[in-house]
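As a warm-up, study this chain.
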Amino acid sequence: MARKFRVVVNGKEYIVEVEELGGSTTVQVPQPINIPVEKPVEKPVEKSKEEPKKVEQPKQVVSKPSTSTNGIEVRSPMSGLIIKLHVSEGQQVSRGQKLLVLEAMKMENDILCEHDGKVTKILVKEGDTVETQQTLLIIE
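Now compare it with the structure written out below.
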């Protein structure tokens, strides 16, 4: 039984026919099919004679963490299972240090520290299931 497949190699499309013959496979590769690619038409931009208007930037509001401390919350980027904690409360941590391992979709993901500081509170333990954006620990 022969099966046809469309394969793209280095931007060129090929139609490949594969036929199984008693354990060995025969592949016929024809010449590439040229597919025309339309280039976008660039339109000239007209220069405006008007003066640019000044727009006031909105004032930035700094939101405080939802906990009662002034620390930085480390939140889960995805839902999953806490496999391993690499830090403990009171421990000094630095940027780039591995804090914990979160398993999601059968893959282990290292959660790294984004700020230097001290771990003031750990809100999860190994074996806990967490949701996306759930606070895992707090660093001051």
